[in-house]
Amino acid sequence: MSAPDERQRSMAFSSSSEPRFWWHRLPGNGYVPPIYASLTDEEWKLIECWYADTSRQDLIGECAVPMMSLLQGFIMGSNVRRIVQLGTHSGYSALLLGFCLRRSHARHGLISFELGEALCAYTRTWLARAGLSDFVQIRHQSSLDPSSTSVAREYLGGAPALVFVDSSHEYGSTLAELDSWYGELAPGGLIVLHDASEFAASFDVTREGGVQRALREWRALHPGVETFYLNSDVRAIDSPEMIYQDFCGAGLIQKPLREG
Q1: Which residues in 131-153 are b (16+ Cβ under 10 Å) and which e?
Q2: Where residue 3 falls among pLDDT bands split at 50, 70, 90?
Q3: 48, 200, 203, 237 - which has most CB atoms within 10 Å?
């Protein structure tokens, strides 16, 4: 049953001055995107409460509508049921991906690794409120811990079909994550990296080129693997005419069904 107010969900964000709602202020975006329109009344109310609480506590750092829509399309369009997330922050994507997994009855469908202990506790509280604890696990553990790959495989019940990289944004750590997690992917599986544009390279506190450089160098070392950038050359927030409406960009890697 559709929610009676779903046509108004998120519409108020367009009049908010908070930087986190930049997508809703773009020209022509006066509509409710499917990532919100598909939620039940209870799910949407929880997301509204989550937004309000993270604003109060200054826990803002989530990805935005374009990236979540990309992930939703992959997951719901292809029944992806084994997902690894590198970087949790305050739980936005864990909640929305958890709703997708609950809709497809995919218990133990997402495991997320996060270094911040307080952020892990915060996210677990919201997942419990949402009734998603059977679908999503948050691990206070480095994605580069040698045991992380086996922990993920055990929780998911098999090799991950999708790995979402949205962690440190540092060149060195991202390159190491790609080396570590690509081998764990199921054949045909995907790695999706957020923040792969020139603009987002500034997020790298080490000033070594961020996700963009890591993906570029990893691709050069793996010429037989399908890789793709979205908005690689975007350099500023106000870049005009972006078809993929995220100035932070994205990177995609698909593991071949038959390697070699």
Answers
A1: ebeebbbbbebbbbeeebbebbb
A2: very low
A3: 200
Residue 188 zone, left/alpha/beta (φ > 0; ψ -120 to 50; rest): left
Dihedrals phi, psi of 111, to nearest 5 degrees: -125, 135
**The model's pTM:** 0.95
Residue 237 inside a domain? The answer is yes
84 falls within a domain: yes
Largest Cα–Cα distance in the chain?
52
- Residue matched to tokens 């790609």: 178
For 238, the token pair is: 């106000």
Alpha-carbon distances, residue 33 vs 109, 117, 242, 244 (angstroms): 23, 32, 17, 14
22 in a domain, yes or no? no
Inside any domain, residue 30:
no
Strand order in the sheet with 162-165: 136-140, 110-114, 83-86, 162-165, 190-194, 250-254, 226-230
At 163, which CATH number? 3.40.50.150
Task: Give per-residue pLDDT as tens, 92-117.
Answer: 999 999 999 999 999 999 999 999 99
3-state secondary structure of 172: helix
| Count of domains forming the chain | 1
The domain containing residue 86 runs over which residues?
Answer: 59-254
Could you tell me which residues come within 8 angstroms of residue 35 by beta carbon, excluding any fewer than 6 positions away? Answer: 65, 68, 69, 72, 96
Beta bridge partners of 194: 250
Write the DSSP assignment of 194-230 as a string of letters: E--STGGGGG-TT-S-HHHHHHHHHHHH-TTSEEEEE
